Amino acid sequence: MHDAFIKIFKVIRKFRWERQGSLYSWMARVTLNLCFDSVKKRRKLAAMLADSGGLERIPEEPPDYEEAAAIPAERLRKMVEELPEGYRTVFKLHCLEGLSHKEIASLLGIKENSASSNLARARIILSNKIKAYWDEDR
Question: How far is CA 57 from the centre of its chain?
């Protein structure tokens, strides 16, 4: 509702009076279009999150905290940014924003299990990147 009113105020100059009730109809149309756009974005994101194409191998032993902490912060940020978009979104919402799987699922319009599995996949990919970083360094 809030976003709809902001959008209406931004584009009010495009409104043209035709008859009684036309303002109401115009506002409803702007709101409806905004809803359609939101659904499209959520479906696109949900499709990206559901795409499990090429899940990377699970490392035998995840890196320990010291290994991860010893990597320069800028390199760790780059590793996170290299994650596929859906995994990166869930990872950031959970690890940086502290949201639960239920909150993430509600926010992104996906199932709670999808949020959980995408976080696990993001962690696997990051774990592999950390291992590769140390393998290159040795």
Answer: 23
Cα 77 from Cα 118, distance rounded (Å)? 18
Low-confidence ranges of the chain (pLDDT < 50): 52, 54-55
Q: Please, what is the angle between helix 101-108 and helix 112-137, to 10°?
A: 110
**0.85 exceeded by pTM:** no
Domains of the chain with bracketed CATH: 2-137 (1.10.10.10)
- Cβ atoms of 48 and 84 within 8 Å: the answer is yes
DSSP letter string, 86-115:
HHHHHHIIIIIT---HHHHHHHHTS-HHHH
Place of tokens 């990597």: 71
**Chain centre distance of CA 66:** 28
